[in-house]
Write a structure and sequence with these properties.
The complex is a heterodimer of chains A (401) and B (303). Chain A is of the alpha/beta class. Chain A is built from 13 helices and 14 strands. Chain B has a single domain, classed as ABC transporter involved in vitamin B12 uptake, BtuC (Orthogonal Bundle). Classes of the chains: A alpha/beta (401), B mainly alpha (303). Chain A: It comes from Granulicella arctica.
Chain lengths: 401, 303
Amino acid sequence: MNQMLNRFKQLAFVGCCTLLISVSCYAQDQTVKVGVLHSLSGTMAISEDTVKNSTLLAIDQVNASGGVLGKKIVPVIEDGSSDPAIFSQKAQKLIQEDKVVTVFGGWTSASRKAMLPVFERFHSLLWYPVQFEGNECSSNIMYSGAQPNQQILPALDWAFEKGKKKVFLLGSDYVFPRTANLILKKHILKNGGVVAGEEYVPLGGTDFSAIITKIKIAKPDVVFSTVNGDSNVSFFKQLTAAGITQTQLPVMSFSIAEQEAKAMGPSLVNGSYTAWNYFQSLSNVKNKEFIAAYKAKYGKDAVLDDPMVHGYIDVLIWAAAVKKAGSFDPNAVRKAATQLGSIASPLGDIKFAENQSLYQTAYVGQLQPDGQIKVLWQSKGALHPDPYDALAFPGKTCVVK
Amino acid sequence: MGHFAIVAGQIFNGFSVGSILLLIALGLALSFGLMNVINMAHGEMLMVGGYLSYLACKIVHGPMSLLFAFLFAFVGSALLGALLEVTIIRWLYGRPLDTLLATWGVSLILQQGARSLFGPIGVEVVAPAWLDGAVSFNHGFLAGLSMPYVRIFIIVVTVVVLGLLTLFIARTRWGLYLRAVHQDREMAQALGVNTKLVDLLVFSVGTGVAGLAGAALALIAPVTPTVGQNYIVYAFLVVIVGGLGSLFGTTLAALFVGLISSAVQMFTSVSLADVFLLVLVIVFIQFRPRGIIFARSRNMKEA
């Protein structure tokens, strides 16, 4: 009797196992995992949290239209904690443990630089949604944000056109601002302008007192600011407290968009300038649909900005590339992505270039009291992405294998 | 801007930075300097003060909201400090390394708590209208100098807090107990001083002052879950350079750090100024390991 019971138990156990395995195999067949890796805490959370949201919106939309290759996309969300080392760890975790087919994420160049070797080592693919300083080109990253010749240099051209030729360069102390300012300096000097000063604050720094004194002494026509994250709140608060208004000395920021303006309080940055490849105020059909869908999911007070749109279109392009390639293999996907041709998006018609960066139109805008940005200028058509500025990095070109 | 104006401006900036540091370090000077408790959660008391003043400004509007906010920040973080003392610190007196670990844990919990409650994005306290603007000089040798009211206000708050603390320690009965406990705990206890109550009071006052620092800082920078982390190292640095247990030394050290860093920042950059400051402190500690002002501690046997 006892023996029989044991045998029965054994049989039941084996049966259950078989059932479990087949169920899990079945489940695996129906879904595909992708990583979403952004800072949900720390100084960068002010900017990155919403990029995560727009990425999830795109995943929802792709799933609603039947998924990719018949599979439902399941996002695995990880927090990079504004710390490059954690970004690198989490990227590895996503690829190795979660077995994601691709990762959407990153904001600071430091986080991207930290993740880069991980994606190269595991032959995986990262979709990076933010403007960056160039001087990098990896076949394991799809760079959908602006290259220097699509954001900072058009902004400089615009400032020179307006007669603002004495430029003060201010940034957070890490790779993007330092490289961006290197490129800007070369172009300012070449075009007969003056570099009135160059200063850096630690990422997350809150004290700008000495820098504001230096700005007052230097008397520039414009401040080009690559200050990142919520340090911007301290900078603008202290600038205003020191009696410097935007009409006296305008600031052109490359890290403040609608989301930051909203979080900081629009009055704080009212009248300052910014340059991006997308503003919420752009009027095209796809943009209106995008705004409506986002607000339906995240509340009607939500605002949209450039990196969010790039986080959104990255997913759509990835899905389109997977369909074209007929596979989730990163190598096949990235090649398919550059051969997709133009796709309509909230940014207008977009297309990846051979070097895995996006063709984009550059805009310069001014922040309005309601936190929206009024377009003052736009480039003639989409600019070809060029990660290696010819003046700052002579002789280098981007060739992806 | 003339040279005088620049120098005067930087001295003002130095006092401004120094005054914030002093507000943070004063509380630490009480707990670390007088009670030998290494409170790693002190920075989070600053954060709590910042969030409390944010909440207070949401509740009370009008020109006086800020004073209410300061009061709220002080009382709230003092109560939190008292809770911390009763539940954790009290059981770990005389075990500095254990307090370090335990309070570090508390600091992480508080950071995560703030993140869950208020979100990862910093919140802002908008200074009331009467603090908008600055004292500006348009003529004479100080032309171009402007001193924001907000920064002047913070300096005034610091001076008032420092004055009140000094009075408290030098003139009140509890201050007398505090000094007695600091000099010789057992003897004070034998003479009938309720040392446990003294410890509780001192610790709560210390965290309350840190809360005030948070409310002051909120006027010029955003309040984030990690705001305390930016300041805790400097607070320890100020207390150690000043000399353990000496409020006067702490004051001198805070001004010294503020003035040096704002002077060096003028000639170099912010990051380099930090490096310079740390090197200076390392050299200073080599020659004066007990800080600027050496106060006798209750642990004379150790000295």
